[in-house]
Design brief:
With 61 residues, the protein is an all-alpha fold. It has one domain. The model has no long low-confidence stretch (mean pLDDT 94). The protein has two helices and no strands. Helix 1 packs antiparallel against helix 2.
Length: 61
């Protein structure tokens, strides 16, 4: 799944908390899923940043 797909999925998960479908019994599970997805996105962005820094170093030589 791409970073954009993950961000879209996280936005959808976040919107659930503000929707009429919100259910307190499901909230903990949904929160954990969103939290784990956010951690994946953060990891993906860190990796992307590292790749960009490596490419940038190659261009500045």
């Amino acid at each position: 799944m791409s970073i954009n797909d993950k961000i879209t999925k996280l936005n959808t998960a976040t919107q659930w908390f503000y929707s009429d479908d919100f259910n307190l019994d499901e909230a903990e599970t949904k929160y954990k899923e969103a939290f784990n997805l956010a951690k994946e996105i953060e990891k993906d962005l860190d990796e992307l940043k590292n790749h960009i820094e490596i490419i940038n170093k190659d261009f500045t030589k």
